[in-house]
Amino acid sequence: MAAEIALNAQKAGHVGTRTGLLGFLERLLGRRQRSAADLARLTGQYQSPLGDLPISVTDLALRLAGQADAQALLHQAAEWLIERSGVACVVIYLHEMAANRLARPICVGVQLTDLPETIKLGYSIYGEVALGRRHYYIESVAREKRLAPVPPETQSAYILPLLHENQLLGVLGLYAVRPLALSEPSRAAIDRVATLIGALLSTAYRLSESQQAIARFDRFQRLAQDLTARLSSQELLQRIVEAARAILDAQMSILLDVNFESGELRPVAWSGIDRETALLIRSRLKEDLKGLVAWARLPARTPDIRTDQRTSLATQAIVAGMVSELAVPVLYYDELYGILAVQTSTYRNFTDEEVDLLQSLAAHAGIALRNARLFEALEQRNSELQKANAALEIARQQAENARAAAVQANRLKTEFINNMSHELRTPLNAVINFTRLVMDGHAGAVTEQQRNYLNYVHEGGQHLLGLINDILDLAKIEAGKMELRREPTPLVPLLKGVMSTLIGLTKDKGLALHREFEDNLPTLNIDGRRIRQVLLNLISNAAKFTAQGSITLRAVQQGDQVIISVRDTGVGIKPEDLPKVFEEFEQIDNALQETASGTGLGMPISRRLVQLHGGEMWIESQLGVGTTVSFSLPVG
After folding, report:
1. Domain for residue 254, yes or no?
2. CATH number where 530 lies
3. Virtual CA dihedral for 74, 77, 82, 87, nearest 10 degrees?
4. Greatest mean pLDDT among 118-127, 164-173, 427-436, 563-572
5. Is residue 239 located within the same domain as residue 371?
6. Which residues contact 487 (CB under 8 A, 6 or more apart)?
7. Are 158 and 252 members of one domain?
8. Among 71, 502, 534, 565, which residue carries the largest CB count within 10 Å?
């Protein structure tokens, strides 16, 4: 605002056109409607009853323009008033908002040695002017007892408030050596001088606050970087409290640890006080300002610890000589690491910016404390980890040796199974074929008993051949040697052929067979023989475990896949047995166990054949209701 005053004053000039200055003064005084005559009187020069020289607002604005220090600004304004108005003494009290009092008096001109350092609002003439925010003219200071002390040889005084935007900044007192007879224009001129001083003082305050905020931010940045570089807990705790005290210019800072089991807050680091005093500062959850902060995990502040109802431990503050306090939680996400508090020995109304600043420091402190604790935990386990790493390396080498041995064993197993399967299938096929020839009477007549025995041999041979084929297929899949002969295969003929087989499997049981697929199913690029093997295995299982009801073969295209399902109304599977269905050599207990048996390889092989085609197989079952086995095949 000071720069704006100077700029507009320079534009207006001392004698020339005053349009820029008039507009500035109109904004400064907040008057939207003012006549040209009023503004001319405002910027004109008045013969003040307070002296022989004229009072010019423009001259004062130029004199104070660019002054950012509040004390220097007030001294210059007082000297200007004495110089231009001829008053003998100027007294200025500043308003302390936190304590709601007048303090830090400034006296220029005839000196007063007994000025009170502080004045409560409402007490003495200065306190009444501050409380009522109205000027007070005293024609005879000798008769006004509320004005003491009075500069010697002065007879009259004019006391008025220093305001800006309805905020009380202080009180201005002018003392003259002769009685005054202030006219309304003269009072208006002095009031406008006070308004200008208030505006410049407010600007100086704001500029000072901005400079302090910038300095604090720079200091905070350096301190935050310093905190992240420290990994020793005790050193870190001490650095945190010193940083808090430094960036907020406080007389004392303390960090308290929170014990949620006992509800106690105890000091772990402090700055600005000795150990004995620090150990007196204890609190409990919800019992004190710091205890409330710990409980609510929100910041709190008070300008006077001794009178704040939230502070039940005021004696601690009195012992430490502290008056105002700001406390914030030290958090890492939702974990509370402690309470960080700063205190001052004078009244202080901590601003929102200061609260944010201390919270930011507490946030960095929370991260730093977290890192420090993690570092110490890592240091503590370092030797254990080194031993574990050595053991892990030994285990890794052993595992690598075991893996190599397992690979070799698996290769030998696969070769053995392949050789065994081929060696067994040739004579086994001969046994099966010759048994059938004897049963059919090609080697002569056979009795009924002989036929039954030969039938047992034939069925056992077929079962053994199926087992050998399954083992061989499984070995090929595990060895990665199963080769699919993919070719465009119409799906509908394949499904119809499987339905014909299903009719043969269920003709003696009287089961109802259902077909749920259309004739427009796509042609798939698959190994038809292997998919037929999968389907035959599924319908064979369905027929085997279904005593009555129905079996349904369903197929439908869904997007880029065809879903094929075999649903039966058989005995079903227990929920705990479902994971066993796709495990090798697993047999599931059921009501038809004695009549329905198998190798335990059909479902695992079927699932792997589907997976080789790029599909997946799954099963749904309810005990006593039935089972549905489905698998998907990609289209294209």
Report:
1. yes
2. 3.30.565.10
3. -70
4. 563-572
5. yes
6. 525, 526, 527, 528
7. no
8. 534
What is the average pLDDT across 96-100?
A: 77
Q: pLDDT tens for residues 301-336?
A: 888 887 777 766 556 666 667 888 899 998 888 888
Torsions phi, psi for 58 (to 5 deg) = -60, -45
In this structure, the answer to whether residues 332 and 241 fall within a common structural domain is: yes
What are residue 527's phi and psi, to 5 degrees? -90, 100
Number of domains in the chain: 3
pTM for the model stands at 0.40
Calpha distance 461→259 (Å, rounded): 78
Question: Are 72 and 16 a contacting pair, CB within 8 Å?
Answer: no
Q: What is the dihedral of CA 620, 624, 625, 629, to 10 degrees?
A: 30
Distance CA 357, CA 355 (A): 5
* CA–CA distances in Å: residue 246 to residues 157, 250, 343, 348: 44, 7, 12, 16
Backbone angles phi and psi of 410, in degrees to 5: -65, -40
| Sign of the dihedral through C-alpha 397, 398, 399, 404 | positive
Contact at 8 Å (CB) between 366 and 328? no
Report pLDDT digits (tens) over 47-68.
344 443 345 677 777 777 777 7
How far is the C-alpha of 195 from the C-alpha of 193, rounded, in Å?
5
What lies within 8 Å, CB to CB, of 494 at 6+ separation is 528, 531, 532, 535
CATH code of the domain containing 359:
3.30.450.40
List the 550-558 sheet strands across, edge first. Answer: 512-516, 550-558, 561-568, 626-634, 617-622
Distance CA(485)–CA(483), nearest Å, equals 7
* Full domain range(s) for residue 65: 42-210
Domain membership of residue 367 (yes or no) is yes
With a CB cutoff of 8 Å and minimum separation 6, the contacts of 183 are: 49
Last residue of a domain, one of 333, 351, 376: 376
Question: What's the DSSP call for residue 485?
Answer: -
Q: Quote the tokens at residue 490.
A: 């119409």
> What are 611's two structure tokens?
């997976």
pLDDT tens, 156-208?
888 999 988 888 899 999 888 877 656 677 777 788 888 888 888 888 878 77
Tell the residue number behind the tokens 């790029």, with chain if given.
614
